[in-house]
Amino acid sequence: MDLKTFIFIGRSGCGKGTQAKLLIDEIKKRDSAHEVFYLESGEKFRELLRGNNFTARLARDIGDKGLLQPAFLAIHVWSHLFIENIKGNEHLIVDGTPRKLSEARILADALRFYKRSQPVALNINVSRDWATERLLARHRADDSKDNVEGRLNWFDSDVVPAIEFFRDEADMRVFDINGEQSVDEVRREIANKIFGES
Predict the structure, then answer these.
(1) What is the DSSP string of the chain?
(2) pTM
(3) Which of 40, 86, 95, 175 has a C-alpha 20 to 30 A away from that of 80?
(4) Residue 6 pLDDT
(5) Spatial distance between the Cα atoms of 89 and 33, rounded to a whole number of angstroms
(6) 107 near 97, Cβ under 8 Å?
(7) How many whole angstroms separate alpha carbon 129 and alpha carbon 81?
(8) Among residues of the chain, what percentage have pLDDT more than 90?
(9) The pLDDT of residue 185 is above 90
(10) Exposure class string for 70-104: b at 16+ Cβ within 10 A, else e
(11) How crowded is the C-beta side of 94, counted as CA atoms within 13 Å?
C-alpha cells in the first residue's frame, strides 16, 4: 500500500477520534510493513494547559471562556510532534487539526515538506444540534453549555474556512462523511470513499 495521509476534521463531538482509531486498525490490517503515526494534538494541548507557566495560564484563561486558542500554540504542538516522530516511511493520520485557515495553510506546507502526496481530509459532518446534544451528554468538565456553544461558534467561523481551503488545494481531496450514523455506518462510509469498498 502506498503511504497514506488522512486528516480528520469536523465539529466537536462528531467522533473524529473514534473513526481515526478504527482507520488505524484497518490500515494496520492492510499494510503490516509500515507503521501508522497518529497525530492527536488534543491530549498534548491538554498537557500544555496543565502546565504552570505563563503560557499555560493564558491558554487556560482562553479555554475557560470556550474560545479558540491562537493558531501559533496549536502549530507549536503538532509541528513539534511532526519533527520528533515523522520518519518518512509511515502512514499519517491527523486528528482535529487544523482549527483555523492560517493553520490549514501551514499544515498543507508541512505536508508538502514531508512529501506527503495526495492527503485526504475526512470531513465528518454533523449538525450543530446533534453535536450540542452529544457534547452535553458527555458531562466532561470542559463541556459546559457556554463552552460547547463557543466551540461550535468557532467551528463555523474558523474551521469551515480551513475545510474550504483544503477543497481548493490541487493535491488534496476532501471527502464529506455523514457523521449522524452509527459508528459502524460511519466507518463503512469512510472505507467506501477511501478504499472503494464497504
Answers:
(1) ----EEEEEESTTS-HHHHHHHHHHHHHHH-TTS-EEEEEHHHHHHHHHT--SHHHHHHHHHHHTTPPPPHHHHHHHHHHHHHHH--SSSEEEEES---SHHHHHHHHHHHHHTT--S-EEEEEE--HHHHHHHHHHH--TT--HHHHHHHHHHIIIIIHHHHHHHHH-TT-EEEEEE-SS-HHHHHHHHHHHHHS--
(2) 0.91
(3) 175
(4) 98
(5) 9
(6) yes
(7) 33
(8) 73
(9) yes
(10) ebebbbbbbeebbeeebeeebbbbbbbbbbbbbbb
(11) 28
From the list 151, 133, 35, 148, the residue with the least C-alpha distance to 93 is: 35
Under the banding of pLDDT at 50, 70 and 90, the label for residue 198 is low
CA distance 161 to 105: 11
Q: Which domains does the chain have, with CATH numbers?
A: 5-195 (3.40.50.300)
* Residue owning grid cell 463552552: 147
Cell numbers for 117, please give them.
Answer: 502526496
Q: What is the pLDDT of residue 142?
A: 62
**Cα angle at 160 between 78 and 164, to 5 degrees?**
90
